[in-house]
Structure formats: structure tokens, C-alpha cells
Amino acid sequence: MTILILFLALFALIFLGMPVAFAIGLSSIFTLIVMTDVPLTLIIPRLLNTVDSSTFLAIPFFMLAGAIMEYGGISKRLVNFASSLLGHIKGGIGHATVFTSMTFAGISGSASADTSAVGSVLIPSMVKKGYPRGYAASLTACAGAIGPIIPPSIIMIIYGSLTGLSISKLFLAGAIPGILMGIGLIIMNYIGAVKYNLPKEERASFKQLGRSFIEAFWALLAPVIIIGGIIFGYFTATEASVIAVAYSVLVSMFIYRELKISDLKVILLKATHTTVMVMFIAAAASTFGWILANEQFPIQAAQWLQDFTSNPYLILLLIIILLLLVGCVIETIAASIIFIPVLAAIATVYGFDPFHFATIVAITLVVGGVTPPVGVLLFITNGIAEAKIKDSIRYLWPFFFVTIAVILLVAYIPALSTYLPSLLD
Known about the structure:
The protein starts with a helix and ends with a helix. Helices cover about 80% and strands about 0% of the residues. It has helices at about 1-15, 20-35, 45-50, 60-70, 75-85, 90-110, 110-130, 135-145, 155-165, 165-175, 175-195, 205-230, 235-255, 265-295, 295-310, 310-330, 330-350, 355-370, 375-385, 390-410, 415-420. The radius of gyration is 21 Å and the shape is globular.
């Protein structure tokens, strides 16, 4: 009964239009007051303990690194190189959008940072070249979802902190699926470009391509340093986030010379705003998750699934459908903190490889977050494109189904997510 009250209160508040973080926090407090005798004085320490973690410290630094790269000319040079490399193909700017998002994903680990940085440059270019506004917004939103899949990944940091799994291995588990998603989106964009007769750019000469590569070299080197350092054990994920900030400042200020001291105020405010939002959601979700754990919801859920079916393949499909629905109505970070402990317990019962299962959960939650009514990434890109949600949804589905296809491939071909982590054993 307690769990039922908890979820009813949550969805009622979301339906009334309350921001998700407040809805999660208030539904948790309401349930504690009505259904338990737990003193409310325990809530504040729990909120603080959730974010008082050295692992969570990586989140604000990766957010800051993404903001610096956006303002410091790094994202612009990635875009120029991607356009020179792929622009001559039908739908070239769309291909460049996906390629840049994949590269930027190796730096920030945040879907929102990736989407806003890449979208602010490429969506206006796409619209100017004749791409429908809704098409540009939908493609960029789905490309932005690659951000938390290709390492580093904020969701994988959260997953590791909640389950004790190696964050380095979690990062590697998402690499191949992220690349597959990028390739799939490029193929679908080509099909869309033919269907809607979207333009292509003039082929860049070898000299122009070489020049754009040289200009983007320091930007392309960033993910190599960050991911390579984590994989080979030179530094932890938290240390990597600090190195990402230091590297982005040095490159933006002293090599590209586009970052000014006066820009730091805007950058810090933007990074702080995003970080506070994420941390507040994480803190609020921790109480919600604690109530679920206290009511033994993971055990009940595992038992219900066992009663329903013992087929592990069907179990995976049910979990994917559940997470897609959850992602539609609950923000990705909040959903991660609420459901990861529950799902990790189920994975243990069924004997799923923990890194394989973590990859499925992470990708599905991110993809679910592309779609309305929450759909943070789609709202970001619609704001940049000045498009209406209903127009974007018209173009969203082909790209969305590409991401679903990748989820199913990862779910039923475990090696796609377990091969690279196994190399660290």
C-alpha cells in the first residue's frame, strides 16, 4: 500500500505540472507522513549524504568542461571538421551533427551539455540550408542522447556509485553501443535526406579537410586523454573530470584564444545552474528510492517477474519497455537513482552480467528521456530551432526507432557491451 501511495502521489503531482524534482521530493515526504512513523528530521541528512560523494563530484566538473568547450571554440572546431569530412554526402550537415555529438560525448558525459553545445551551432545551419525545423530538432535531440552512452558518462557514474561496479568498466561498456547508435542515426539521416531532398555541401578539398583537422586536433585529443587516462588507470573518473576542465581552459584560452576572462562568469553560472538541477534531482530521488528499498520493492518486483515468466529474454524486454515508459515521465537522473538499485537486484536474481545490464538500463533511460512529456533534449533542441513539439514529433519516430533497435541489439547480443570491459580483467 505504501508503494502504491508513493507512485500515485508522484504521478498526480507530475500530471498537475509540478517540476519532476519537486514532485519526487513532495511525494516522498507525503508518503512518509501518511504511511510511516519515520521522523522527517532524517530526510535532510539523507539528501546531503546522497550528493556528498567523491564520485558525484565528477558531475559538476564534467558539466563545467562542457560549458567551457562550448564558449571556448572547441565545439565550433569539431563542427567544422565534421562538416568538411561528411558535408558532401546527402544530408551532410545532419551527418556532421551526429558525428560532432559522438565526439563531444567523449568529453562532457552529459546529454544536455552535448545537445546544447552542438545544437546551438548546427541547428541554425540546418534550418538556413532548408532542413525542416522539426527535423533538425529531432535529429539533434537523438544525437544528443549519445552523450551519456559513449564514455565518459554521468549516468554510468551514478550507476557505479549506487552499485559499487567499476566506473572504468561501465564507461567501456557503453562505447560500442554509442558508436552503433551514431552510425544508425547517420544512416537514417541519409534516408531522410533523400526523402525530403535535403541539400549536401560542396566537397571539401584535401587541403581544406587537412586544415580543419589541424584546427580541431586539440579538440579531438580531449576525449583520447580523458577516456584513455581512465581506462589505463592513470586517474579516476572524478580526477578525469578535473583534468577535462583544466584541459579545456588551456586549449580555449591559450591555443584557440577564444576564451576570455570575462566569459568565465557566464560559463560558471551556466555550469552551476545545470549542476544544481542535477544534484537537486539526485537528492530528491534518493528519499524516494530509500522508501522503495525500505518497503522491499526490489524483492517484490523480482518475485513478480519470476511469477510472470522465467524466460530471461522476456524479462529483458519487459524491463526495456518499463524503462522507456519511465523515461517518458521522469527525468533521466531521477529515474536512474530511483530504479537502478531495484533493477540491479533483479539482475542479480536472474544472473545477468552486471555491465551488460547496466548498459541496457543506461541507454534505455536516456532514450526514454528524448520523448515527451518530459523530453528534456527535445525541448532544448526545439527552443534552439524555434519549432513546435508537434512538428518535431512528426520527424522524431524514425530516429527514435533507430535507438530502440540499438537497445535490442545490446540486450540480445551481450558481447556488444561486455567485450571491452573484459579487456580490463
